[in-house]
Amino acid sequence: MINGSLDPNAGEVSLTLNDDEYLTLRPTLRNAQMISRRCGGLAKARQALIDEDIDVIVFIIRTASGMTDRDARTLEDRVWRNGYNNGLVMPLFNYIAILNNGGKPLPEDLQAVFNVVDDGSSRKRVEDYSQDHDSGNG
Known about the structure:
Layout: E1 13-17, E2 21-25, H1 29-39, H2 42-50, H3 54-65, H4 69-72, H5 75-82, H6 86-100, H7 108-111, H8 121-132
């Protein structure tokens, strides 16, 4: 807390593309609304990530990072070259969960679900999380 208010950077999520591009995903009401409207709700955004919907992946990254039109021109290609792996998907799931939490960081027990695991087990944990939290938008 800073002066009794939430740290302005709290809830931000870091994302790395192709081992050399570092983006910060910022949880704002505007971003939550844009993603919710594009996907028909944040629960459907999570499902689109599970379904590996490249258009939704690109939209979330572009929206959440505040990317300029110029930088966004090649985003689809950069995401494609990166591949749909834990290093990409886990930060996006984490970001959507933080949006569901009003932009605030998640409690430690829930945050642990989004820690990247090299053996691929994190994907199953995210699918379980998504199914457990599919009622409504949160």
